[in-house]
Here is the input.
Amino acid sequence: MDGSVALLVTAVGCLIGVAGLAIAVFVLRRGRKQARLAPPDLFRDADADAPWGDPRTLKPGDVVEIRQVPYAIRGSMHLVEGAWSWVEHLLDDPDGARRRLSVEQDPDLELVLWDAEPGATVTPGAPTIDFAGRRYSWEESGQARYSATGTTGLDPTGTVRYHDYRAQDGARLAFEAYGESGWEVARGERLHRSEVTVRPQG
Here is the structure.
């Protein structure tokens, strides 16, 4: 009788051990499957320890290197239109050119370097615009509210109207009018993430 009880206890113990092992294997496999199915945070994975820093944290006084050329940020405009927001940083160009860097996440991070065209005579509104050897097609337009920090030459808050155009090769053409001022024209070029390095103030 004692031998039967011992045998029964041993059998039950073996069954419990096997069941526990099976549960552990199931949980491990389920965890791996969920890890594979979970959408990766590409921006976090790519930039958590990246040497180029996070352009979403840029502010006046910081230095940003674009294609290995350093620019000090002298002012920034934070723009909001409904649920959509973006930032435009005015760059202190060593050659005196009027340049700005726009930073937008919608949903992927988009960085565009803009060069002002103060002598341009074109105006927005047409479905297509021919300018500087390219044909641009209308993409979007609207009006946003802005808040300015640093040195921008603008009121601290206000509104801006805009029209955005894009060429077939991805080149951009933008028209902006802050407050009651006239249209300002700029040509834009999208930057690869690795072409922009952030040097925070201090």
Notes: The chain has two helices and eleven strands. The two ends are 82 Å apart (CA to CA).
